[in-house]
């Protein structure tokens, strides 16, 4: 089972735009054997949130082997040509380590910020992913779409990876799973998808038709994660900062159907997470493998968690990966 480290990009209003903590975590994760450092995208967060693409390039410059992924960029608010060019260059700079993960987005204020509307997001997403894929793989692209028009467009340089970097997409409803199967190469679950829901959704995703440009159908399960010597130590490190993050999500997701999941008791959160002793975490990882997951992305550091606690959790998971970590 491959593991990804979901990197905390929330800035501290007293200490920004410093990314030294993220670099330290990702370099430790690289040593531990993690497959990816994974970054998200957020806007209009008052204390600050580091921009994802420039942060990805920064991490590329400070690492050697670990994959660099997004989960995910809000595709409907980006111009696809600029997005394709920037991501291609990150793949070049990193020596072919990019995985591009997208999402539809859900915050009305983020769409307004970029001059788009929530009701446009599906058609904008589909057009964006199609154009990014074509620009990465074709010598010349002409496209007349609903939102964008290009004529004889091309990228130089194109991505290092052949035929192109893999593309992930998030989503939880059947239409999103079918869209992901057709346009993309991997499905990233929600962090709050329950274990009871996962097997049916994995089966639906894998059964959906693949598009002509698809490179496969991998399942990447996103989970809160913390590995410690004991369950009590894991909960003590994670619960308070995670609760603060969930309180914020309750506001951000006020228009989403899953908003109530961020106000659930700890036992419900733990039941859909990889939190506990290293032995318990190992059992949880094996359970997701049995469900059909190809990889896990673990969010181990909500904003407010001390750096020392985050590093300990990376070491804990590293012991399961056989990384032989020392700090």
From TrEMBL:
Keywords: Flavoprotein, FMN, Monooxygenase, Oxidoreductase. Pfam families: Bac_luciferase. InterPro entries: Luciferase-like_dom, Luciferase-like_sf, SsuD_RutA_monooxygenase. GO terms for molecular function: oxidoreductase activity. Residues 17-294 form the Luciferase-like domain. It comes from the Bacteria. Its EC number is 1.-.-.-. It is an enzyme of class 1 (oxidoreductase). This is LLM class flavin-dependent oxidoreductase.
